[in-house]
């Protein structure tokens, strides 16, 4: 999947998007634009693999448009086990724990992603520590959203199986 250049129009739209994710009382618009200098833009088509099972995350992604799917490999097929919506991160677990992925990350629709590669994240940590801390906070929030959705789904499945009807 190739990287796309970030145009000035993209920068404005991405800055607005990122401004909705972080506390703008401590982060200036200029700093959001600075963060974009560490990133690139990707546009996988529906069904395209973003990252595969067994790979260690060398990049993490913000979903700007479309959605990402977490796909488990079954004996004869794939099964969607999670969906990452616009405004959330994709790939942060393997990126931060450096363990091989256990699920495939696939574009669930034509999707636009903001990507930060590990090398650029390392530079960000040294050059702009406040931005790196805010990125970590965004990762925690994104993981929390995924965990809560998964917990809700598992509760509903358990109720269905045990026929509690709630």
TrEMBL record:
<dbReference type="InterPro" id="IPR000595">
    <property type="entry name" value="cNMP-bd_dom"/>
</dbReference>
<dbReference type="Pfam" id="PF00027">
    <property type="entry name" value="cNMP_binding"/>
</dbReference>
<dbReference type="InterPro" id="IPR014710">
    <property type="entry name" value="RmlC-like_jellyroll"/>
</dbReference>
<feature type="domain" description="Cyclic nucleotide-binding">
    <location>
        <begin position="29"/>
        <end position="124"/>
    </location>
</feature>
<dbReference type="InterPro" id="IPR018490">
    <property type="entry name" value="cNMP-bd_dom_sf"/>
</dbReference>
<protein>
    <recommendedName>
        <fullName>Cyclic nucleotide-binding domain-containing protein</fullName>
    </recommendedName>
</protein>
């Amino acid at each position: 999947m190739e990287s796309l250049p970030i145009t000035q129009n993209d920068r404005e739209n991405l800055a607005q998007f990122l401004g909705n994710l972080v506390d703008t009382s401590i982060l200036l618009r200029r700093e959001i634009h600075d963060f974009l200098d560490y990133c690139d833009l990707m546009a996988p088509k529906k069904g395209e693999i973003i990252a595969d099972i067994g790979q260690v995350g060398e990049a993490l992604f913000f979903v700007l448009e479309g959605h990402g799917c977490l796909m488990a490999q079954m004996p004869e097929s794939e099964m969607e086990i999670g969906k990452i919506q616009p405004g959330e991160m994709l790939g942060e677990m393997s990126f931060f724990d450096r363990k091989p992925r256990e699920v495939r990350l696939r574009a669930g629709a034509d999707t636009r992603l903001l990507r930060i590669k590990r090398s650029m994240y390392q530079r960000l940590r040294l050059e702009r520590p406040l931005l790196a801390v805010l990125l970590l906070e965004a990762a925690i929030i994104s993981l929390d959203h995924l965990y809560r959705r998964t917990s809700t789904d598992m509760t509903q499945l358990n109720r269905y199986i045990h026929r509690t009807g709630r």
